[in-house]
């Protein structure tokens, strides 16, 4: 445990905060999309409220795709991943640790920014609560599933286009349930089932993804 | 229990329980590998014992690096297996006894030499203090470069930082793919002295290099890998 905390978690966090522009890029993208949308659609409070949750979710998915490749790309290119694989720590633990760091670095700022975005898009408090819950449970899925695709494409040059093609269909269910939950919240209806399904997807991804990632990385290394 | 010969044959279970002679050293048994439909090697046997330095030679594209990667477990052979002192390479414990330094340095350009080695030691479950890392870097004449981001070092200096791992991890087996790349004459002398010392302490080294090793290293066994069409 200590090995993972120091060797992987601390290392990845140090690296993330040393590349400030890469850290900020997805966040700025998100902010720009959410700010531009109302201007393009027309600033009626009702329209904004209707499209708000969807806009935030779509922007979150797209912005995450921007920085997704970073998960393994640099470590693969400079050989750090090789050395990690030879360290004797099971690869799935390394993968899980890197995924958690990725989530923390790319989605924590989003969650912290979300009240501001909710304000931009005129969301009511129940809607915002539902949105926060879906983001909290749904964004780990993006990191977990994304890591599998990054692991598979990391050995290829210019894998990012393939990455987007692989991932977008997988994120569609997530988007549907998340927006449906917020919509129910807007109409004062219970949104427990949608949240439960997102949580189930998250747990399934959490259970399977580290092993899939470790296999994908081994294949890429071969 | 000694089983009659015919029983051994009918009951594979008994057969497998018979103590096989434990083979020491690194053994690559019956290895086969293809790259892009070209056979690199087929049914290759290689053995590296403690206290031995093997210099693997061969033209570009002969498959030296592929063989090295198979021997450390980074890629898997199409046929055959690799074991260290009788333990299969798939066992995680084997990793504690190996240091592999390949073409890629495994150093992150944004981190300093000291940070890179600290995190590396943590990953490899080594209890290495900062002083020991400074000592290892000093042994490679990198005094004053410890805190500089790796990307600002020259290629030769980066190679030295990568090689400093050999000072930090007490492993028997050193597998080095072209360790002399971009090292200057002084650096090569330094490494050769380190090789001789490691071999004298019953360590084992398998290395590739297009350069001949000097007499400083002591006894060297040369293996050739031919380019196959």
From TrEMBL, chain A:
The chain crosses the membrane at residues 27-45, 51-68, 89-113, 125-149, 161-182, 194-217. The keyword Cell inner membrane applies. It is a multi-pass membrane protein. Keywords: Cell inner membrane, Cell membrane, Cytochrome c-type biogenesis, Membrane, Transmembrane, Transmembrane helix, Transport. The keyword Transmembrane applies. Pfam families: CcmB (PF03379). It is found in: Cell inner membrane. Belongs to the CcmB/CycW/HelB family. NCBIfam families: ccmB. Required for the export of heme to the periplasm for the biogenesis of c-type cytochromes. This is Heme exporter protein B. It comes from Alteromonas aquimaris.
